[in-house]
Amino acid sequence: MRPQTDGELVAAARAGSRDAAAELFERHWSAAWRAAYAITGRRAMADDVAQDAFERAFCALSRFDQRRPFAPWLHRIVVNRSLDLLRSERRLVGGEVAERERQDPEWRDTEGGDRALLEAVASLPLQRRVVVVLRYGLGFAPAAIASILGLPEGTVHSRLARALKQLRAELEVNGVERA
Amino acid sequence: VSSELESRIEAALGALPNADEVTRGRARRAALDALPRSARGHGRLLVALAAALALLVLGAAALAAIGTIQVTLTPKREGARTPEGVDVPPGSNGIALVASGRLWLAVGEARIEGLRARAADLSPHALYAAVGVGRYLVVTAPNGRRAWTLRTRGEVKAVAWSPDALKIAYVAGTELRIVEGDGDHDRLVDRRVRAVRPSWRADSLAVAYVGAGGHAVVYDLGRLSRRVLRPTVPQFSEPQFPCGTIGPLRALAFAPAGAALAAASADGVVIAGSRRIFCTPYESRVHPTSLAWLTPGEVAVGEVTEGLPGASRIWRVRVGSGRLFQPGIVESPTGILGLARAGDGLLVARRAGNSVLLELVGAKQLAAADARLSGQPLGRVRGGAPLSLVVR
């Protein structure tokens, strides 16, 4: 049997099918959580952001334009919520403290991962980190990222280019330091 | 070089761990609970109702057309929706709520929503907020302008701003400390205390806290002395008075005026006046969560009845009355998590599924003996206990 598309599941969920909503959750939970984790760098914050994003998305399901794809809409909520939380935390506790808290062991705990690269991604400015996560973590094309973030596509390209340049420089410095 | 780097980024981000199963399960339940009511299986019922209504309207219109009756259709009144987040209650300047380790703060138009924090308090008139974020005590204007930050020796678990706005008492790790309102002169008061919110006396010259043994301690800043409060009045040592062994305390609060101190444990409520200590055992086993002064002579205690039959109640205790306990003034089927005086009323935070609902009990309701929580909730936040609620 052909699996239902996201659009069909959204329509069924709007008509009252809890099973359809549960299927939507299962299909997108992992990506939403990992996006939140990659942006915030903190497991606890990712838990909050991902759950919150689903609650908000499901709560607003009746207002969702069914002709549009579900995933970008959900990830737009994830990104906005992550940025809101990080910015309000930074405003409240200050950049230095937020930075120290952000660099708590969680990025370093990733076993077997490319730790140097993950730390470099974590050190990117927020705006660049978001486009990197959406492009390489979730596989969205620049046009889709532009739609998710409400930006011109050219801005997405330039942020990606600057992020890659910064990552390359960072990795080279680390490589030299290690050597 | 870029394409190699891009592949490396994809691999690194692809290797990030997943959320644990407990988190996934909790989020799934919460997300499904957030579905609008119409999407929870009421769709067909709504269609049937709409069809029936259409038939009635058509019939009525037909009768109206032949002059039998007059028909007036008024717009359907929409049920008010509980707003997400918190809002400043009427008659107050600001509110700070910490639920499940997240802060919700509202002062005027300024909002902080869902910031990771363990404790928070507002200065008098809500001009500033003191927030415990990990090992930091952060004082900020609610518009987000940070005044100062203090790195402490342990996680900041409880904060209390003095009524004169000049001092902040806070629990960091197991220590109770006091710092001036400008961040200076941070000093130790007690090395071993419980993570219960301290309370300042109205004159700001004494602070009460729960010591490591679970008893109330009052630290006098003028005399630099400490007084441990134990209900040692002779009758309490008799077996028929269970308050002889009251404790450990879970909440305490000085009266907004004068020097009376109220404290609640699982066994009863202690109210320490200047001369006497009254002890009021509960009629049944309750799980107190919160405590607030209603009037200079009356205290409200909120409870949860987790795993027990019956609704959770807010009890009230009259200081020095012959009848120690009155029945609950408000009932909630889901547990009272927090109480705070707000204007003439009482703001109640109660559990509802995965959320905390904020409801205001007005002055008239407070005066009624058997008032119920029936008003429209002022706000809703996701999370549950432990909870701290402050209204200024």
Structure description:
- The complex is a heterodimer of chains A (179) and B (392).
- Chain A is mostly helical and 179 residues long.
- Chain A has 9 helices and no strands.
- In chain A, 41% of the residues are buried.
- The model of chain A has no long low-confidence stretch (mean pLDDT 83).
- Chain B has 392 residues and is mainly beta.
- Chain B is 14% helix and 41% strand.
- Chain B has 4 helices and 28 strands.
- In chain B, the strands form 7 sheets. A 4-stranded antiparallel β-sheet of chain B has the order 3-2-1-28, with no helix packed on it. A 4-stranded antiparallel β-sheet of chain B has the order 4-5-6-7, with no helix packed on it.
- The termini of chain B are far apart.
User: Any low-confidence stretches of chain B, pLDDT <50, length ≥5?
Assistant: 66-79, 232-242
State the order of secondary-structure elements of chain A, H for helix, E for strand. HHHHHHHHH
The end-to-end span of chain B amounts to 58 Å
Radius of gyration of chain A: 18 Å
Query: Percent of residues of chain B in beta strands?
Result: 35-45%
Helicity range of chain A: over 70%
Low-pLDDT parts of chain A are none
Number of strands of chain B: 28
The quaternary organization reads as heterodimer
Number of strands of chain A: 0
Strand content of chain A: under 5%
The averaged pLDDT of chain A comes out at 83
Put simply, the count of helices of chain B is 4
Instruction: Return Rg of chain B in Å.
Output: 26 Å
Q: Give the averaged pLDDT of chain B, no decimals.
A: 78
Q: For the largest interface in this structure, which chains are involved and how many residues does each contribute?
A: A-B, 59 and 51 residues
Our count of helices of chain A gives: 9
Kindly name the structural category of chain B: mainly beta
Using the alpha-carbon principal axes, give the shape of chain A: globular
